[in-house]
Amino acid sequence: MTRIKSPAEPFRIKVVEPLRRSTRAEREAALKKAGYNVFGLPAGKIAIDLLTDSGTSAMSDAQWAGIMMGDESYAGARSFFRFEKAVKNLFGFAHVIPTHQGRAAERILFETILKKGDSVPNNIHFDTTRANVEVRGGIAVDLVKDEAYDPDIERPFKGDMDTAKLERLITAKGKKRIPLVMMTVTNNSGGGQPVSLANIRAVSAVCRRHGIPFFFDACRFAENAWFIKRREPGYARKSVAAIAREMFACADGATMSAKKDALVNIGGFLTLNDGDLASRLKNTLIVGEGFPTYGGLAGRDLEAIAQGLAEVVDEDYLEYRTAHVAYLGRLLDESGVPIFKPVGGHAVYLLADRFLPHIPRDQYPGWALTVALYREAGIRAVEIGGVMFGKLDPKTGREVFPSLEMVRLAIPRRVYTASHLEVVAEALIALHKRRDAIKGLRIVEQAPHLRHFTVRMEELA
Ligand SMILES: Cc1ncc(COP(=O)(O)O)c(C=O)c1O
Question: What is the pTM of this model?
Answer without folding.
Answer: 0.95
